[in-house]
Amino acid sequence: MELFCSIILAVFTLYLEQGSCFPSGAPWDTCLTMFPKHNGQQRQTAPSHFRFHLQTASSFRPGDSINVSVTSEKAGHALTGIQLRARPTSGDRERIVGQFVAWPEEKTQALDCLGGIRNLITHSNNEPVTTLTFTWRAPDVNVGDVQFIATFVEDFDHFWVDQTLTLPSLEPPPTDKLGVDLSPNFDVIDWSECGVSKGCFLYPRACTGHDCYAAVSFRWTNGSLEFEMFASQEGYVAVGFSEDKHMGHDETVVCTAQGDSLAIQRGYNHETYNERQFKAGLSDVQARYVDGRLYCRFTRPIVMEMYVEKGHKKLREFNLEHAHYLMLAWGHIYDGTEVMGLHKELPPVSDGLVDFHLSAIIRGSSLPLAKQIHGTLMLVSWLLLAGSATVIARHYKTGFRGRLICKAQAWFQIHRFLAILLWLTTAASFILIFVVVGGWLPKWTSAAGNAHACLGVAVMAGSTLQVLAGVLRPAPGTRLRPIFNWGHFILGKATHITAGVCLFFAFYNSVIPAPQRKFAYIVLSVALVVHIAWDVGLDIAKCIHAKKSRDQYEMKTVDGTSSDVGNEPTIGQGPPEVTLYLYLSCILAVTCASITAIYMF
Predict the structure, then answer these.
(1) Of 144, 167, 190, at which residue does a domain stop?
(2) Residues with Cβ within 8 Å of residue 467, at least 6 apart in sequence
(3) Pairing state between β 361-362 and 199-203
(4) Is residue 23 part of a domain?
(5) If we measure between CA atoms, which residue out of 256, 262, 263 comes closest to residue 231?
(6) Using CA atoms, how far apart are residues 198 and 187, in angstroms rounded to an integer?
(7) Average pLDDT over every residue of 460-477
(8) Residue 264: is it exposed, middle or buried by C-beta count within 10 angstroms (0-12/13-18/19+)?
(9) Are residues 227 and 144 part of one domain?
(10) How many Cα atoms within 13 Å fall on the side-chain side of residue 491?
(11) C-alpha to C-alpha distance for 97 and 581, rounded to whole angstroms
(12) How does DSSP assign 546-563, residue by residue?
């Protein structure tokens, strides 16, 4: 089934769109990362075609103005985009120091970053140039040696990051020690204390600590909060503090690992992306990547502030004295950097607001409640209701001892009720997901997500046609009745198979966390095998019973014991009702197991 999904998936890759570049300048919220996220393109590792030059001085004092030039050193290569700022070489190297007082206005512009004024240069258009000169003024206080750091963009696919030029200071280095030091010496996390001396958010629901896929713990220590967390992959692990269950307007703390390179950073979640901000204030930071897991520990003051809104003129307070929802996220980072990529897997969110004063074990889910309901309705519809309606119509027309319900045969009334209920639950699920998503899928949806959506539309259309055909069915004995019977059978089978593939695609999706995908594959595969086994078994039993009835009839005819029409073989007679109850029990069991793939993660 996974191979089959992969083949179909290739068809839907046409839905994917290219990422966008920013010809009018880098976004204002990339002041620290300075990394062009051009549809996932990696940075160039070959030497850059562009170079820094100091024009007026080779060193500086506080308050001095320095001219810095950027030139192309290779014919045929021009600069179309740029980001440039200055940082100290010691202490807190995240700080942006000084400000730009002159720049080529026909090509570039100066932005205000993270409380500063005109402290970042970026392009204002994508016209190619070969030389740019800027005037930077040093801060009035001694910050020690300064390093200019730049990003050079030649085109969408070719850019260089972390290009540096050091400017020595004529003043002695400052003695105050700033910055956040990270220690690679990591003390093992004691998960046995969860619910005793510290609170723990554990994912998935059934895990207890070391066996989790990801987890975060917290405890009060000397008026601050100590956090410990891990995720089962290289790249990054992040914890978020939110006032609601949705991404946006949240604080995050992120630990990254790539090889032996470890780092920690703070960020602010906008609606669809994370903005890196200053991490000053965090302390006792430890990190380690070992055995496929990234571990992190840090201490956070109860109250911290972050810049919000464009231009970074407004500070917002994040106070963990108040309860927040906890979020866990993990993903990849760009090669050779600390820059986070978009997390593909949905982040688990705590079920309720978390009181950080309490030592409680917290559970959560990666799927919002509305999507859980959507999935539940579809699983019930196409694993339980569709299978039951089909089996009763195919094998139990002569069952139920000839009982009538509302003057119609019992099998028909049950089949019709299940079919209508199937359509209602499918329609409810279909409408619900359109309301949640707000229409069709956003452009960044994966190919698997698009495939699932398109198959879902086909299922909705097929089930609607089935109901309409049932309402407008020709009367028995008419010329069109055999055509209806075959059409009803083929359309029903096709819709049922499409729904099964659609269910697999719901989990064959990079946004679904890996443990949830794996569990869902198992239970859906078991459900598929059970359905096929019952279909085949019931057909075989039906054939055996028909042959046995025919043989008995022929023996009676040869012996002359009976030749009445009423004693002709009941070739269409189905299996006993107890078989139906056993079938329903099995299908109900696999349906419930499949639903756990939604709610256990």
Answers:
(1) 167
(2) 419, 420, 423
(3) parallel
(4) no
(5) 256
(6) 16
(7) 90
(8) buried
(9) no
(10) 19
(11) 75
(12) HHHHHHHHHHHHHHTS--
> DSSP states of 499-540 as a string?
HHHHHHHHHSSTTS-HHHHHHHHHHHHHHHHHHHHHHHHHHH
Dump pLDDT digits (tens) for 398-408: 777 778 888 78
Can you give the length of the chain in residues? 601
CATH classification at residue 95: 2.60.40.4060
For the chain, how many helices (H) and strands (E)? 8, 27
Q: What angle do CA 360, 362, 364 make, to 5 degrees?
A: 170
- The DSSP output letter for 91 is S
Could you tell me if 516 and 587 lie in one domain? yes
Question: pLDDT value at position 18?
Answer: 37
For helices 577-599 and 514-559, the axis angle rounded to 10 degrees is 170
User: Residue 69 contacts by C-beta under 8 Å, 6 or more apart in sequence?
Assistant: 52, 53, 54, 55, 131, 132, 133, 134
For residue 25, is it within any domain? no
Q: Is 65 exposed, middle or buried (0-12, 13-18, 19+ CB in 10 A)?
A: middle
Q: Which of 532, 538, 381 is nearest to 466 (CA)?
A: 381
Q: Which long-range contacts (CB under 8 A, 24 or more apart) does 2-6 make?
A: 2/508, 2/521, 4/501, 5/448, 5/451, 5/501, 5/504, 5/505, 5/508
Residue in 72, 82, 336, 297 with CA at minimum distance from that of residue 185: 297
**What integer pLDDT is reported at residue 76 of this predicted model?**
86
pLDDT, residue 21, reads 55
Give the Cα separation of 429 and 434 in Å (integer).
9
What does the alpha-carbon distance between residue 501 and residue 8 come to, in Å, rounded to a whole number?
10
Gap between the Cα atoms of 249 and 240, Å rounded: 10
pLDDT band at 594 (very low <50, low <70, confident <90, very high): very high
Question: What CATH number should be reported for the domain holding residue 562?
Answer: 1.20.120
Cis bond before residue 204 (omega within 30° of 0): yes
Statement: residue 566 has pLDDT above 60: no
Total tally of structural domains belonging to the chain: 3
Q: Please count the CA atoms within 13 angstroms of the CA of 600 that sit on its side-chain side.
A: 17
Dist CA 215 CA 206 (whole Å): 12
DSSP label of 380: I
What is the span of the domain harbouring residue 230? Answer: 182-365
In terms of DSSP bridges, do strands 283-290 and 182-183 run parallel, antiparallel, or are they unpaired? parallel
Residue 444 pLDDT greater than 70, yes or no: no
Are 319 and 301 in contact, with CB atoms under 8 Å apart?
no
Tell me which DSSP letter residue 381 carries: I
CA nearest to 84, candidates 163, 176, 186, 184: 163
3-state secondary structure 401-455: HHCEECCEEHHHHHHHHHHHHHHHHHHHHHHHHHHHHCCCCCCCCCHHHHHHHHH
Q: Report pTM.
A: 0.82
> Using an 8 Å Cβ cutoff, are 33 and 10 in contact?
no
Tokens of 274: 């994370």
SS3 category, 478: coil
One domain, residues 214 and 113: no
Domain shared by 357 and 379, yes or no:
no
Please give the helix or strand (H or E) that residue 153 lies within, else none: strand 146-155
